[in-house]
Amino acid sequence: MDALNLPAPQGKPRIVVIGGGFGGLNFVHALDTRHYQVVLLDQYNYHTFAPLLYQVATAGLDAPDICGALRKSFRSKKDFHFRMLRVRGIDDGAQEVLTEAGSIHYDQLVLATGTRANFFGNDKLAAHALPLKTVPQARQLRHHLFQTLERADLTDDPAERSSLMTFVIVGGGPSGVELAGALSELRRHVLQRDYPDTDTDHLRFILVEGGDQLLAQFSDKSSDDALRNLEEMNIELWFGKLIADYDGRTATFKDGSTLHTHTVIWGAGVTGEVIEGLSDKSAEKGHYLIDDHMRVREYQNVYAIGDVAYLTSDKWLQGHPGVAQVAIQMGQRLAKNFNALAKNKETQPFEYFDKGNLAIIGRNRAVADLPGGIHLNGFPAWFIWAVVHIFYLIGFRNRLFTFLSWVGNYITYNRSVRLVIEPTLEEELREAHTPATP
Amino acid sequence: MDALNLPAPQGKPRIVVIGGGFGGLNFVHALDTRHYQVVLLDQYNYHTFAPLLYQVATAGLDAPDICGALRKSFRSKKDFHFRMLRVRGIDDGAQEVLTEAGSIHYDQLVLATGTRANFFGNDKLAAHALPLKTVPQARQLRHHLFQTLERADLTDDPAERSSLMTFVIVGGGPSGVELAGALSELRRHVLQRDYPDTDTDHLRFILVEGGDQLLAQFSDKSSDDALRNLEEMNIELWFGKLIADYDGRTATFKDGSTLHTHTVIWGAGVTGEVIEGLSDKSAEKGHYLIDDHMRVREYQNVYAIGDVAYLTSDKWLQGHPGVAQVAIQMGQRLAKNFNALAKNKETQPFEYFDKGNLAIIGRNRAVADLPGGIHLNGFPAWFIWAVVHIFYLIGFRNRLFTFLSWVGNYITYNRSVRLVIEPTLEEELREAHTPATP
């Protein structure tokens, strides 16, 4: 009995993959479907090149530049079946994935669900801070940014305008640093020209970091370079500050201080997208516990890869970093192991090949920690960053196009996609006319 | 007293323009702001190249390809002020435009508000049929199309699947014809490859026209060519059929017949966006009545241009056609008249120079009626259409890019932007599980 219009697997084991991110995509690519039927489930019909979400948020690129249609990616893959839906849970006894459209039987299950923003249970923060984990969120952030500036141009109240022109970014990791850099460039090259009636010198971008350095997982040299660059770009850097609350108008910090702002961007904590229904022992602190064959604890036929998985090793005592490369390599290794099993060959444990860390801060401003302890900054780091990102945009809209967009932006400083496609102006204005919460 | 952060006009008359469409945009471009202050109001921060909306709806182009940021377009224009907001009304006594953010005084007012879909007072139709007049609507239509196909791949009920795979387009004018053609190409070149588990031969596209021919305002030759092309492309053509009602599941026609479909696209009637507050005698049947100097009846300092205006002449006894060229030429003429007045020169009445009609139906399929009674079809018409449209995309994202996108699509048949960025899948599925209204 196969629901959801799925053909019977014809004697082959059926592998169900939940999530079309870096892990799931690379798993499906590497899997030999002569030996397995593969069913990919995702709530979106596209894969997101997440490292460039901040570019969509700051109008450097538009969504199709960093998204790839999943059905198109696997057009030539035999016995591959995509279904767009949300997963509700897992019945591990019946070996079924439960969805609103029906249940799907699996022989092997691969969990590649990734992470989402984690507001540590603070509902007010969750309701008002803007996360940047998905394409809709990136678009929403862009709409919010430009709409907030439009509103600053509509008010005659200096306090209101100052709050509208103050933007807070929470978290000094790569997303926070890259976003802050992009916003600074946007201010300099676009906003100052586009808003002649507003004094854009009063635009404040504040990066708030709980610890005492930026890019904690990078080398000290890179942290220092990032700091120097952001200071040169007029980003205010607040260290040792933790946000405690935000109601849409006033941010409150753990030390009791407050700040009036209409914008708090959330680049801080994330948690894994753990699905209901597996044994309580399979996950801890929002991540599936896996062995070096990516098997979820307590299960023989359930696997987890990428950000949602937690794997320690001699080299990675605190678990592997939550970066695309780990997800990609886990997906590939797991698929190769399945292929090996089908041919009665030996499987191999996962071993992470660390290619280093890269973060771009602006035009000719970037930091790179490469294998062998090599550290680069400035134009060389920027150039490597550009090449690596273009290279990995395989299967996307059009690598050439995105590259040209980029080069175009680089030469002309011209952000073309600063459009508020679906303004929520009425509600925003109505809100603006009610007194802010003290 | 100048609200909304607007500088005082310093002795110059202030012209307020409502609407940044073809009329408003060309008016502002041509106006000499050494003699006037100009304030442009729009609810969106971009201009839309409306003739290509159907391309956004069918995943050939994405929104930034056909949108131009208004602030960017007028960056170098002195004493130009853009404000993004919705207009609530006009106080003609006080000479003020009323908005939720405050009131704006005008010396001269230019109404360039365009049209919106008109469902003739049928709320059910308005709630369920999908119009295609704005970028958000085009995106919503694209999301709906692809999401409906995803749902067809999730159901095991043949009647439900057949309803999901039936798409109705209402109206045989240029929008309806161009959209039908684009959908047929999408079926042939994308859908048949992307949905291996669904028999896309069962995809039905039905174009419903109340009259007895397509493209009624074109030459008979063009109408016939359009008919032949759409028939060759397997579009079902229903003539003399008027839709009476649609509840989201069943379309009912005036002759009593019904059709089960999840999609009705509205390419039929439109009505002008008339604003509250002017004299009752100024507008009739949803359009401002203007003289040949674009002056609204009963007023000396209120003008209307483009689709929202109704102007008859010896040549255009039923009014001018609602096309971009009329709006462009009206905007230019009105600005030139203002410029002339400032220099005590004579103004000139509006006279429409008809450049002809063009409609594209598919790859190498188009019809063109050019000045001098010249009729073209096939590749020559298609080529002229492409050149004209690229030429008019001045100031947009990037003419080169859009052109390359196009050439790319032409060569590869590859639609890259078939993404459902913000699926409403949960609600859609829930709906699907409740019985359809009989």
Could you walk me through the main structural features you see in this protein, from its secondary elements to its overall organization?
The structure is a homodimer of 438-residue chains. By secondary structure, chain A is an alpha/beta fold. Chain A has 2 domains: 14-43 and 85-117 and 271-342, FAD/NAD(P)-binding domain; 123-268 and 357-432, FAD/NAD(P)-binding domain (3-Layer(bba) Sandwich). Chain A has 13 helices and 26 strands. In chain A, the strands form 8 sheets. Chain A has a 5-stranded parallel sheet with strand order 5-2-1-9-22, with no helix packed on it. In chain A, strand 20 and strand 21 form a beta hairpin. Chain A starts with 13 loop residues before the first strand and ends in a 6-residue tail after the last helix. The model of chain A is unreliable at 432-438 (pLDDT under 50). At the A-B interface, strand 5, helix 6, helix 12 and helix 13 of A face strand 5, helix 6, helix 12 and helix 13 of B. Chains A, B: It catalyses: a quinone + NADH + H(+) = a quinol + NAD(+).
Number of domains of chain A: 2
CATH fold naming of the largest domain in chain A: FAD/NAD(P)-binding domain
Figure out the total of helices of chain A.
13
Question: Mean pLDDT of chain A, nearest integer?
Answer: 89
Coarse morphology of chain A: globular
Assembly type: homodimer
Major sheet: arrangement of strands of chain A: 5-2-1-9-22
Largest sheet of chain A: 5 strands, parallel
Highest-level CATH class of the largest domain in chain A: Alpha Beta
CA(first)-CA(last) distance of chain A: 59 Å
> Greatest chain-chain interface?
A-B, 60 and 60 residues
